[in-house]
Amino acid sequence: MNNVDTHLLTEITGNDYLDADALNIRKNGESIKRVTNPYIDIKPKKDQSGIEVYVKENTKFGIIHIPVIITESGLKDVVYNDFYIGDNANVIIMAGCGIHNDLHKNSEHDGIHRFFLGNNAKVKYVEKHYGEGSGNGKKILNPTTEIYMNSGSHMTMNTTQIKGVDDTIRITKAELGADTTLVINEHILTNNANCAKTDFTIELNGEGSSTHITSRSVACDNSVQEFKSNIIGNAKCYAHVECDAILKDQGKVIAIPEINAQNIDANLIHEAAIGKIAGEQLLKLMSLGLSEKESEEAIIKGFLRG
Amino acid sequence: MIELKDISFIKDNKVILDNINLKLEKEKFYCLTGPNGSGKSTLAKIIMGIISPTSGKIYFNGEDITGASITDRANMGIGFAFQQPVRFKGITVFELLKFATKKDMSKADACEYLAKVGLCAREYVDREINNTLSGGELKRIEIATIIARSPSLAIFDEPEAGIDLWSFQNLNKVFKELEDSYKGVILVISHQEKILEIADEVILLEQGKITKRGKSEDMLNVMFCNNCCKGGSASE
User: Fold this and answer.
1) pTM given for the model
2) Hey, are the CB atoms on B88 and A292 less than 8 Å from each other?
3) Is A152 or A15 the better-scoring residue by pLDDT?
4) DSSP E strands, A133-265
């Protein structure tokens, strides 16, 4: 690994990957490092590019890192990763993609991740996207996440994309069984002429299933964002979707909510708010001695973290 | 300390403040009172720099600050507790207090400020300032930011507005303690007799003009016995 590689890894994992229980680093379409243990196995896919991660049932706790780095301009990397989480297992999965593109050709990474959660399994999935480089070649990331949850399982998915990614289409699909909970926290900041689209389809099929989706985004400069969610309640279930966006400069945000109740006991809520930073918020922080710019930065930093 | 000279504010051809001349001195607790629409909040916002006066000058410790920004005034030592405190998604009470003090404050210090306004500190310090906080809780946090900042001029715009009677009793205690110990100037906009009683001096503003000014006990007799307050036409 060279300096650019380690820098990208640091940006997307904060060097935590060095302490992982299981690890797979993918660079320019190839696996360059893999670590496994008796509870967590990582195997290459036979028919497609990608890996299969197997977590044994009753695995008490494990941290799995699967970072992807792309430094080759003009590369389109498509990867299929499947995660099989055994009954009662509890793991944290850290994924992310860093692209460094100094040239004029587009670099693209499309990660298709599928999660199969056993009964009462618990997963925290963290994904971070980062783009850098001096070239005018685009940095494109299109993650697709599919989640299948068996009864009693719990999954939290935190995704972050802060600056530097030109185009992204993020698709998330989930099917929830009985007594399952899916929590999704999405944070996006776009700038320049970035375009980011997110599309959620969550089917609440089991009795007692619930989902909480929070999307916080900031659209700066001439960037455009689109948030689309479709929540289908097929059983006694609960869903809460909260989409908040801050507009800056000439940024544009479109939110398209759809909630579809197919059962008398489905309780589905969607909240969406788009607007500039509230003037009162700026006034308050300025009255504490922060400049207008510092106030704006503090508000955005808090908003995207919360 | 602070001096307002010939301050007027006109909006949509309405005179909101009419040639205000006011001088506030160190280590004194002032209460600015008067009917709704008399221009109290406007006057306070003009001191903080949130609103610019149509004419007149403001001097702070002898320096002309009429054109100074909110940030500059804050850094010179003016603090302002808003009548309707604002919520921030993602910013915690601890962070807001840190912004207020501008130093590496510990959580223990933050808890001390919260305890001063009657909040059980451990429950609040890490909470986000979002809509899970009630109006009364927000108000106390707002006051805590000013106490933490300890400005040489602390302005409180109707601290009692929007809080229940129970919280108000506690709030009274907070202001009583401030009156006893505070080294700077305190200017509270209030309609509450209890707060008027604490003040060293009461300033009555009616229809954009200071009509009376005097010691708390004298003013209370005049205001409440004669029912003298006249409503204003301007909006605050």
Assistant:
1) 0.85
2) no
3) A152
4) 139-141, 144-149, 154-162, 167-176, 181-190, 195-204, 209-219, 224-233, 237-247, 252-261
